[in-house]
Design a protein that fits this description.
The protein is mostly helical and 210 residues long. It has helices at 30-42, 46-58, 62-65, 70-73, 100-110, 134-147, 157-172, 175-182, 187-194, 196-207; strands spanning 74-75, 78-79, 82-86, 93-97. It starts with 29 loop residues before the first helix and ends with a helix.
């Protein structure tokens, strides 16, 4: 008995990106950074404030930020002014500054009772998890963004990575400096990451009146 060739029937599933804004996440503007800091200070969210400040200063990918150890930022009884880590994606070192304000919030966090005996800078809440996950970090970023009335889908963990370098490029136009700070091996990667060609084109277009 022959079996007729029937058309394949696929389950009608909604697209994974339905209702989401897809594309490069926006950097925060300085006013957004300060607004989030104020809210975290008012809430006395010591860990979140330290994490937010270091995310902005370090310009690290989320996977590297959550794996930071206390010894990466702390030595001889003080928070370091500069430090370097090995990037998990490229296996190349990247160096970053820790500004005075960030050092203060990190010192407050390191004095917290929750940090006693912790090897990792952002310890997990469960014994089987040594540090917070990238998913937890993404949820925190979403909460920070929502708290100041911004659209969460337009921002993400890469917004934290892009915020300071976007401001540096805007003020100086120095792509080489941005490349070094991000730990990129190729300038093309930095150009694509910042979207500077499009931004420059738009700025030129906006300056021309017809």
């Amino acid at each position: 008995m022959s079996v007729p060739n029937l058309p394949a029937v696929r389950q009608n599933r909604p697209a994974w990106n339905k209702g989401r804004l897809i594309g490069q996440k926006r950097p925060l503007h300085p006013k957004h950074v300060w607004a989030i800091r104020v809210r975290l200070e008012i809430a006395k969210a010591v860990r979140d404030l330290a994490l937010f400040n270091l995310a902005i200063d370090s310009k690290l990918r989320g996977c590297d930020l959550v794996r930071l150890k206390v010894t990466d930022v702390y030595a001889a009884g003080h928070v370091k002014e500069r430090t370097s880590i090995l990037q998990s994606k490229t296996q190349k070192p990247v160096r970053f500054e820790i500004t005075e304000g960030t050092r203060g919030t990190l010192a407050d966090w390191l004095d917290d009772p929750l940090m006693i005996g912790s090897e990792y800078l952002w310890p997990g809440r469960f014994h089987d998890r040594l540090h917070i996950s990238t998913r937890q970090y993404a949820r925190l970023v979403r909460n920070w963004i929502s708290s100041i009335g911004l659209e969460p889908s337009a921002y993400g963990t890469h917004s934290m990575r892009r915020t300071k370098v976007a401001e540096i490029y805007r003020k100086t136009g120095n792509l080489r400096a941005v490349q070094l700070l991000l730990g990129h091996t190729k300038m093309d990667s930095t150009v694509r990451y910042l979207g500077v060609e499009l931004e420059d084109a738009l700025a030129i277009s906006e300056s021309v009146e017809m």
